[in-house]
Amino acid sequence: MNDRTPLIAGNWKMHKTSPEAVETASELVKLVADTTDVDIMIAPVFTALKPVSEVVRNSRVGLGAQNLYWEKEGAFTGEISADMLVSAGCQYVIIGHSERRQFFGETDQTVNKRIRAAIDAKLIPVFCVGESESERDADQTFSVLDKQVKKGLEGYRADELGTLVIAYEPVWAIGTGKTATREQAQEAHQFIRSLVDSAFGTDLANAVRILYGGSVKPDNVAQLMQMPDIDGALVGGASLNAESFSRIVKFK
Ligand code: PGA
């Protein structure tokens, strides 16, 4: 047993207008009101953050954004800073999601800068890593994770990373219905924890929460959560519906 509080996080991606987001969040707040010993987060689109923050205030549900830019302000059309997210009510921010890496030019270096901006603003970074299908087939899973974790966290001190959350999301399992087996996930999580241990020491390695993401559903979450190094889930599709997401939150 460890004393890490599980975190169940919902990544709504580019779904839901503000009224739709408010409706789902209101439903969720009611459905999870009686939960304990689990942290809950939802990440709506930027335009829905403020209205959703009003719905989740003083509830069991935390608020996250799906990305940020590392500069504080300036001529960066279309970008949004950490302080702006805080002022919209966020406590968390997802960084380096594979869709950002795949479609929007995110690299290990830009991930590293975004994590810095999040930490400076006291946002909890949910730092995503994971191999593609071809990398797994070529037996490169561990080397890919090694590179992503080391470069993403290069230049940090352990005492800066106290709130860090890492999400292991094998790209081949995202939105495909193909979940990693719990053994595959456990093996990757254990490896990621060992990387944190060698870079930052055992205290941080024991404290860091490592979420699994990739086709998590109400009917597979419990078996994943039984594994010793799986501390929660980053959920896409199944987080869009309050009822199904609440069943994931109540995995026990
Ligand atoms: P999925 O997405 O649950 O729809 O596979 C997970 C994610 O991309 O965070």
Sum this structure up briefly:
The protein has 11 helices and 8 strands. By secondary structure, the protein is of the alpha/beta class.
Task: Report the portion of residues in β strands.
Answer: 15-25%
Uncertain runs: none
Shape: globular
Radius of gyration over C-alpha positions, nearest whole angstrom: 17 Å
Order of helices and strands: EHEHEHEHHEHHEHHEHEH
Tell me which ligands are bound.
2-phosphoglycolic acid
Q: What value does the average pLDDT take?
A: 97
Q: How are the strands of the biggest sheet laid out side by side?
A: 1-2-3-4-5-6-7-8
The amount of helix comes to: 40-55%
Please give the largest β-sheet: 8 strands, parallel, barrel
How many DSSP helices?
Answer: 11
What does this structure look like?
The chain is α/β, with parallel strands linked by helices and 252 residues long. The protein is built from eleven helices and eight strands. The protein has helices spanning 18-31, 49-56, 82-87, 98-103, 108-120, 133-137, 141-152, 182-200, 202-207, 221-225, 242-249, and strands at 7-11, 39-43, 61-65, 92-95, 124-129, 165-168, 209-213, 232-235. Strands 1-2-3-4-5-6-7-8 form an eight-stranded parallel beta barrel, surrounded by six helices. Helix 10 links the parallel strand 7 and strand 8. The structure holds 2-phosphoglycolic acid. Residues 11, 169, 174-175, 213-216, 234-238 line the site of 2-phosphoglycolic acid (PGA).
